[in-house]
Amino acid sequence: MIFLLKLRGCILSKLKSDRSIFWFRQDLRLENNPALLAASKCGEIIPVFILDEVNNTNQVLGAASKLWLHNSLKALNIQLGGKLRFMSGNPKVLLPELAEKNSVTNVFWNRAYEPWRIARDTALKNQLTDEGLEVQSFNGTLLWEPWQIIKKDGTPYKVFTPFYRKGCLSAKEPKLPQPSQGLTILEEDEWCGSKPLNDLKLKPKKNWGEKITDVWGIGEKAAQKRLKQFLNEGLNGYKEGRNYPSKANVSRLSAHLHWGEISINTVWYTTKAHADREKLNGADIDTFLSELGWREFSNSLLYNFPELPTKNLQERFDNFEWIDNPSFLKLWQKGKTGYPIVDAGMRELWQTGYMHNRLRMIVGSFLVKNLLIDWRQGEKWFWDCLVDANLASNSASWQWIAGCGADAAPYFRIFNPITQGKKFDPQATYIKKYVPELSALPIEHIFSPWEAPEATLETSGVILGQNYPLPIVDLKKSRETALSTFAKLKETKSLGL
Fold first, then answer.
1. I want to staple 204 with a disulfide (CB 3.0 to 4.6 A). Which of 77, 96, 117, 209 is the partner?
2. Per the domain annotation, does 429 fall within a domain?
3. 451: phi then psi, degrees, rounded to nearest 5
4. C-alpha neighbours within 13 Å on the C-beta side of residue 51
5. Does residue 357 carry a catalytic annotation?
6. Of residues 90, 322, 325, 450, which has the active-site annotation?
7. With bands split at pLDDT 50, 70 and 90, how would you rate the model's confidence at 180?
8. Strand order in the sheet with 134-138
9. Overall domain count for the chain
10. Residue 19 lies inside a defined structural domain of this protein
11. Do β-strands 44-51 and 19-24 pair in parallel, antiparallel, or remain unpaired?
């Protein structure tokens, strides 16, 4: 019925005009793009991307995100034959003006779920509708809409397993990927603020960005290639292998999914089809699909708890005694904590705009529990440095690490960077790659170089405190301090304070 109404809307609009605006956002692809497919059936299209730094004052894109976005838009524009319009400013001003000057009667976009985008899009939809335009939005980002997966009592899930098992897997199957069809792009529209891509000033001024683009393929074709590579080389053995940063058992699809260079529905169904065809281990498949489920869960949390990026979901943590230590924060950011696995993770982030998920947990735990620095400081740094900086996933993950979020890790779960390194990087392959100054150390000393004999350090070319730092905190003492600080919260709660 809904489809017929939308089709009727297109037919009626075609009587008036054959022109639609398609607004690209975090859906930078042509394949399996629901809103673009609908727009393509309604005649000529004006494809536009608007850099909105007017309505997102609290979540301005980080440097790594801007770099990725620039390259993704560049790739998309090539696919569109150089016909993508680039604008910057307030969509609530630009879109109505563009529609009026070009006699447009339809506007299409795929929905976004960040609080500020929801507020903006709702206001814009009402505005355009009042001006006589047909506005249609679609789900092109998630497997299930956040409002679809709720408990029987109408409240949102706060624990992942029932959310995924009882909610998602019991819900209607996600939509099958839809093939694209030819686009008819309006050749000569009335100019309305369109500018060259470079004028959006998304590329960083420093050459830091070149290091990131050297290790990534960006754009829809690169995303499709990456999915194929992962299915062939990384899916088998995923359940266990995903914890080892030097192994190939990670998808590295997060940035492609965040920017919509590939559809989550495509990943979901292509994975299932590949697993059936190759008769792969069901545990590997279930584990990978559940990781996609975590992405859904994070978006559900953000949708239902819009203050997730800044406010503790567990209010008792509002009284937690965080330590303001700018010097320790800076050492953590630069990968100079004196703990090799932590430093390797932070340097990978800086050099590539990415960090292996196991390392995200290790470095996060070190910041909030060994250094007692507020999780929001970590979230802020990741937001600026990650090419896959997704507001929902980044916020939910940091609250999980800190123990203050939904379905959070218990606060007493404190990752020991030495034992984590030995377990998940047993040959120190990852450490040696990102902390090369330690590469000559014998394996038995590389995870805690301060314990190595002086002669071994000298032979290996390691001078602690000069070419590699001494540990900035003692693991045992800092763990005890963290637990005692947490204990105060429980005491406060028991006193009714």
1. 209
2. yes
3. -95, -5
4. 20
5. yes
6. 322
7. confident
8. 85-88, 44-51, 19-24, 106-110, 134-138
9. 3
10. yes
11. parallel
Amino acid (one-letter) located at 39? A
Indicate which CATH number applies to the domain containing 477: 1.10.579.10
Query: φ and ψ at 229, to 5 degrees?
Result: -65, -45
* Residues 275 and 395 placed together within one structural domain of the fold: no
Does residue 56 sit within a domain? yes
* Cross-strand partners of 464: 468
Sign of the Cα torsion 307, 310, 311, 313 reads positive
Name the residue with tokens 């090369």: 436
- Regarding whether 300 and 428 lie in a shared domain, the answer is no
- Is 322 labeled as catalytic in the residue annotation? yes
What average pLDDT does range 86-100 have in this prediction? 95
- Domain boundary pick from 304, 328, 359: 304
As a residue count, the chain comes to 497
Please report the DSSP string for 406-422 in residue order.
TTPPPTT----HHHHHH
Residue in 144, 375, 381, 400 annotated catalytic? 375
Q: Which domain holds residue 41?
A: 2-140
Q: What is the mean pLDDT of the chain?
A: 93
Q: Which of 109, 294, 381, 383 is labelled catalytic?
A: 294
358 and 479 in a single domain? The answer is: yes
- At how many degrees (to 10) do helices 391-402 and 375-385 cross? 150
Pick the catalytic residue: 208, 236, 291, 437?
Answer: 291
Active site residue 208: no
324-367 pLDDT, tens per residue?
999 999 999 999 999 999 999 999 999 999 999 999 999 999 99
Please give the C-alpha separations between residue 173 and each of 96, 144, 170, 265, 349, in angstroms, as whole numbers: 36, 9, 8, 10, 35
Residues 158 and 289 reside in one and the same domain: yes
pLDDT tens column, 480-494: 999 999 998 865 553
Structure tokens at 453: 């004999």
